[in-house]
Inverse folding.
């Protein structure tokens, strides 16, 4: 039964399941789809015929079969819909326009100050311009925020680092734009992207850890992004690691992020005389690349602190895999030795084989992650609440739903 008490249409469920399978597993044959979904080959044939006619899926290359003619693979039609992703930072908005398969059409960075009164209206204006430029069927907008979000579908934000306290991001943007808007913590958006287009295709339980300005963690358990009771799950940057340590942006002292976030690394580099008091993380990186022992020691120590902390997270969550990414990953070679040694040593013997994957970082990945809040909803029959239902309706219809149907 659906939430409104009406029985779901079986054809809708099969269509959604096929789209979900192609989105999460990638191109598949009709026989594989029938086997994996537990439905008859005739049902798959009939349903995919409809999806092909509506240009939601497309036929790809043939692959050898065990008998008879080669099987044709089906994949998502990237032109069936697209999304806009926006990552909000303390000084700019990163924007992307993407196709259904996650391919980036365009990207840009726009200066933005989130602190003044009326900042949400400015954000709405920026996104309105992006909506006007978007070609084709816009499924919705995803917004990534460096803070806690009560729920994707509502989008009330607490983000102290950018001065937002109970900010009605979702309701205000829906009012201004008239399209579905999904809002979440920025690291959770990366986890959402991985669930559809990345490591989530091979693992149902994993964590995404980011290093850079701060330290964040997105948690995926059994294919679902875990958000916690108040939307703040995964704040591993605020694990206390020292008594009376450096002051953290959260107001406490000795947090992991205060030590190994960008500001913490630079402060330690200044203390050791590696960089000038006016220097930044680029200067620390340059010193490490030049082979300066103190710079290398700072990264090694940061890697060890991260490794020990993540061992505790692995013991708590028992993920299949740990994915490391973020702006700071370009210097991972300096973190790695200390991290691997401390991480493996601190793990229980039964956990020491957990897989760690380091993903190269590009400037637009935060915004692509935000767009994935929208792109993931067609592949999950409950994701995004009422906003997710509107996204799925737009995809099924092939044309935008009316703005009047979009409620905050």
């Amino acid at each position: 039964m659906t939430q409104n008490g009406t029985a779901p249409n079986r054809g809708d469920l099969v269509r959604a399941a096929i789209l979900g399978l192609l989105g999460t597993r990638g191109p598949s044959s009709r026989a594989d789809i029938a086997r994996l979904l537990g439905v008859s080959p005739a049902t798959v044939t009939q349903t995919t015929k409809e999806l092909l006619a509506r240009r939601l899926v497309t036929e790809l290359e043939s692959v050898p079969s065990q008998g008879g003619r080669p099987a044709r693979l089906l994949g998502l039609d990237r032109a069936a819909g697209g999304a806009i992703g926006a990552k909000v930072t303390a000084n700019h908005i990163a924007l992307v326009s993407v196709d259904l398969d996650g391919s980036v059409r365009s990207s840009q960075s726009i200066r933005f100050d989130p602190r003044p009164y009326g900042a949400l209206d400015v954000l709405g204006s920026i996104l309105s311009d992006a909506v006007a430029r978007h070609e084709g069927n816009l499924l919705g907008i995803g917004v990534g925020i460096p803070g806690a979000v009560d729920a994707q579908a509502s989008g009330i934000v607490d983000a102290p680092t950018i001065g937002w306290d109970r900010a009605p991001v979702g309701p205000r943007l829906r009012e201004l734009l008239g399209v579905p808007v999904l809002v979440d913590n920025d690291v959770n958006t990366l986890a959402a992207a991985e669930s559809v287009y990345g490591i989530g295709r091979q693992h149902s339980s994993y964590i995404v850890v980011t290093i850079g300005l701060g330290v964040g963690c997105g948690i995926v358990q059994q294919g679902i992004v875990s958000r916690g009771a108040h939307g703040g799950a995964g704040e591993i940057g605020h694990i206390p690691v020292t008594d009376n340590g450096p002051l953290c942006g959260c107001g406490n002292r000795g947090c992991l992020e205060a030590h190994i976030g960008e500001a913490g690394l630079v402060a330690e580099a200044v203390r050791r005389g590696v960089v000038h008091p006016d220097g930044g993380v680029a200067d620390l990186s340059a010193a490490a690349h030049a082979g300066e022992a103190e710079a290398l020691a700072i990264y090694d120590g940061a890697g060890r602190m991260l490794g020990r902390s993540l061992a505790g997270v692995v013991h708590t969550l028992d993920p299949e895999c740990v994915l490391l990414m973020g702006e700071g990953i370009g210097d991972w070679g300096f973190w790695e030795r200390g991290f691997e040694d401390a991480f493996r040593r601190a793990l229980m013997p039964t956990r020491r084989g957990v897989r760690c994957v380091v993903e190269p970082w590009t400037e637009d990945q935060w915004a692509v992650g935000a767009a994935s809040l929208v792109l993931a909803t067609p592949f999950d029959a409950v994701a995004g609440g009422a906003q997710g239902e509107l996204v799925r309706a737009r995809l099924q219809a092939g044309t935008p739903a009316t703005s009047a149907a979009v409620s905050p």
